[in-house]
Structure prediction request, 1327 residues.
Amino acid sequence: MSNFVSWWQSGILFGTVIMLGALGEILTQKAGHLNLGVPGLMFIGGFAGFASAYLYGNTANPNGFLLVMIPILVSIIASGIGGLIYSFLTVTLKANQNVTGLALTYIGVGIGSFGGQYITNLAGSGTYARAEAASAIFTKNIANAFNLTDSFSRMFLSYGFLVYLTIVIAVILHFVLKKSRVGLNLRAIGENPATADAAGINVTRYKYLATIAGAAICGLGGMFYIIVYCDGGWATTNSIEALGWLAVALVIFATWKPLNAIWGSYLFALLYWFYAYSSVINLKLTTSQSDLMQMLPYVVTILVLIFISLRKKKENQPPLSLGLNYFREDR
Amino acid sequence: MGAYPQFAFMETAIRFDNVTKIFSKVVANKDISFDVKKGEILALLGENGSGKTTLCNLLAGIYLPDAGTIYINDEVASIRSPQDAYRYHIGMVHQHFKLVDIFTAAENVVLGLNPKEFKFDIKAASNKIKEICDKYGFEVDPNKKVYNMSVSEKQTLEIVKVLYRGADILILDEPTAVLTPQESEKLFNVIRNMKADGKSIIIITHKLQEVLSVSDRVAILRKGHYIDTVETASATTQSLTDMMVGQKVDLNIERPKVEHDIPLLEIRDLSIKNDEGAKAIDNVSFYIRGGEILGIAGIAGCGQKELCEAIAGLRKIESGDINHLGKSIIGMKPKDIINEGIAMSFIPEDRLGMGLAPSLSITDNMMLKTYNDNAWYNPFVDRKRARNKANRLIKELEIATPSSETPVRRLSGGNVQKVLVGREISAGPNVIVTAYPVRGLDINSSYLIYNILNEQKKKGVGILFVGEDLDVLLGLCDKIMVLCHGKVMGVVHADKTTKEEIGLMMTGSLDLTEVKKNKDFGIAKDSFIEDKPQDIDSEVIIEKFKEEGVKEDE
Amino acid sequence: MSNTKTREPLLHITRKGATSFLFRSTVRLIAIAFAFLLAFAFLAAVTKMDFATLWNHMVDGSTMAKTSKLAFWKETMLLLLVAIALTPAFKMKFWNIGAQGQILIGALITSTLMHDASSLADPVIIVLSFVLSIIVGGLWAAIPAIFKVRLNANETLFTLMMNYIAVKLVASAIDTWKGKASALAPFTSGRLPAIGTNKYGILIFVVVVLMVGMYLYLKHTKHGYEISVVGESLRTANYAGMNTKWIIIRTVFLSGALCGLCGFFYVAGVDYVISTTTSGSYGFTAIIVSWAATFNPFGMFILAMIMTFMSKGTTNIGNFAENLNQYTAYITVGILLFFLIGCEFFIQYKIVFNQKIQVKFDKFSEKVHNAIPWWFSFWKKVADGVDFAIGKVQAFFSKLLETMKTKLVALFKKKDTGAQISENAQVENVPNVEDKEGSTNE
Prediction:
């Protein structure tokens, strides 16, 4: 049982990272932009959050509130700038979205790793550094505070506030997309930008804002990964990139619906971590077998991809103009 | 202006004063000056490319004028965006519908409105839509998704959308292009209701009959210049055409008399499904003889596309037979069908989507169907031969292009069509399937295409002509088959029918196959298909239209 | 309201017409120059070195010692190979971003042979793994292609997921092979031999042959023609009677096969060992190389050289500066990528200023023209020279092609005397059909 609970716990934490990435990407894709730069953005956000938390946390007398706000804001701003570059290239300069996204991933991984290495060198070890103070605050939770050790509390109350905030973000995103005017306009742009343009919606502004906001959410995911999931530790061998691609996969799995992303991300995470907790179902795995087990989320995504291609239900399809740049004169 | 006594008492809604719009060297509108009165229906008449749509886009805030002033209600107006246009109570219904497919009608209507408001009240919107519908006599279900709507429903929705935004000046860009005559008449009634309500309506069109039947005045544009505004009451088809084209034009399309030959292509009991899995063509039988042009009339999307694709081997059929000179071509590969001598030129709405590769040169497009004809062991394409062919067509059909290496995309619409039709004909087919070959062409280019088709007809080629404009179908074709929801409503002789009758058949109100139920329609007496039904005492043509000129015995 | 309010925006954007080769290359060169400037500004800020020192170190990175020269060509060729591999699929608008996976699978099959079949003779292992890596890489890529043509499943995301499946397969194999050891030991049998003293001779030779071959394949063969038509419009291709499903699968197979070949070279010719990061980030950078060179293999060659130069140079600068680390090259190369992507805008679109600014701009350019006339005459000469050179190169290739064609045709004609190629059957009954192709060449 306790094994199951730890599996569940790592599932929730891991799932929160990819959920944030997927939510950002859903927002971006709803505006018609396929941003393959998610791993890069998560890397940038993760590094920025970590670096600011590390540097501020090591000052003489860090303030608890600022210790929370600084990493969040810095990671949002840093990845938002990444999103800005992406939107400048794809919206204003009308560059190919796939190519631009991949370039963003490339340079994002570069910036994150370069900066991270710089900090670990500062810390002295060269391969590892830890933002302890910030991590401690971000992982404060109810279960610990009240010393609750029953399974329920450990499964549902043992996480820092960001885990719950992420679910709230998903729900808000759902309502914004579904019920608000902004969401209606945004969906119209992703489906048919020429129509939205004719209806008097500022397509360029919406695309910029959606892409930048999406990038910021992705960046938050990166920060969560370093500060909470990795307990504030930056190692040169971290695997944000793989999580970024999982987030992109999750967007398809969730069929572009934020509410689906909530359970989808936890499911992905549980599948991903199944290899480490396979004893839950009395399964003994060798290392090479557990490597194979880690394929599960990717295989599941492919199956979902095939499944939604088979179903052809209009509501489950990607936004109609996804990946296509809008140029008013072309209509 | 103001030389029209009976309109003198009416206030001016819009006044153009020397409006000019230039698109990088192409002058779309040059010094346009005229006015639109309140409560009138003004037809804006002109050929394709005469600047009608551009002018209206200036009103709708899509483009900005390079020079000149637009006055709305006698005040200088600065319309810089569609929102500005709505602020001036101007609404435009575009030719290509601006609707989001996965949204409901109500969601489409409220799109882009009240940007300050966070939530939108879909219920209130639905109620207001219903009010508008009741007032003018529309029918729109606010909760229906656009992808489930028919073309005319979509158009109604577009008009409701504009009215919802409080438009007093409505611009309709080619509103009847996709409607049946009956649906058009219904639309005109609505327009008259709106006029009675004091709204000004501008209809962009090049269909003269409609201009005469619905408008109060006609403003004519030619090649970006304003020609004149005349009162409809004093205009005739010929006088309008002369102003529109600039010189006397013979409106009659030539229909050379050719000895009809054996049936080349016979279609028997054909059923085809469309992409959504619904029946697009339902148990259709007909045939085409050598030396005749068979027109196909029908509302957009009633199976024409699927039929053409099935004949070209691009679409699987459900049941039935397509027979070319006694040989079934069902299941044959497109390539083999081409080799049989069946050519298809299909001009889709975007013109370049099928039949041509837009970014490739004319030369490369020439070898689209023949690139693989040299020896199998030769891995290379023969560009030299394709280049010769391209140069020959450029000379013969007077295609305006810098060289044979120019990408097709850079050619103008008429020249693109010439390349496509020219290539199809140069392959020497015996059956030509052509859909919308004059779509978007000006009158002179259209006539060039008609001449090319007539030349082929004289040579004994059988031609299937899918058309939009009933006047053209009536002028060019020998016989016209009318489709409604994938069913044949009858085949009539073009010179013995009327537009109204075809219109009734297009909507399914008149079904000639029902009138003569016991006959086998669409089966030639001299059919090549072996299992001819015993009782062929009638032809495809209803007796009252029967003409002796058709050669039935071979 | 007054008339002055009706003002046009400062500028608007329109599509450009045809552009000359010279113009396109100039724009790209300027973009590359700007990228280098920005990268140097970044490096200078971090290392506190001046530009001249940085430049010297950068040049040294690719040229200083014989080993660095060799490494430069190795990396250029590997990057070029992946770019060439991806090109046919991209030209067909099939977004294969699974190069990483296809390389890994090729590498995996090569490693399997080198590890498990070491009893065989080296040449046998080499030939076997050469052939198998091509086949397996192609099949790996063909899986998403099959789902694309059957169900229209999104290939971008499908190929992406396949990358990670390949990564996990490789990880699993490595864990099996290394057993209790901390790392996998390099394989000893089945290594590619050096040509003379050049360890990468075979690699360089094969890639250069592939570069020319891919150019000819895309430009002049029936397959290449089919690829361009399918990329332009699937409907048109179907209409022309092409078997589009087969063309897509075939082309993606080719793309994957060449990626597999790249995996073979990584293991058998370069690293002699496999890891999950064997392909590095070439799978992604090669996409941008192929795209920025507008699918021209010779252009890819130049871009691959520039990129490798930047990457190796940055790494070399790192040897002289504490603040840099092994990831710095990602940043400088990333800057280069962004500039290459961004400059396409200036090739495809034209910025039109409104009348007032245009008049000012015209006056300004006239002034410039009057001030330095020599520059324009110089530029004209350069342009003429480049045109001349391009003409020469093109003439060479068409001549080469003609020879190949005649040789090939002659070769097959001998074998093929008996076989009749069926003429397009014309039905006799049809009257008056215009003559077929025969009459077209007047």
Notes: Chain B touches chain C through 72 residues (CB under 8 Å). The CA atoms of residues 39 and 533 of chain B lie 61 Å apart. The mean pLDDT of chain B is 80. Chain B is about 30% helix and 25% strand.
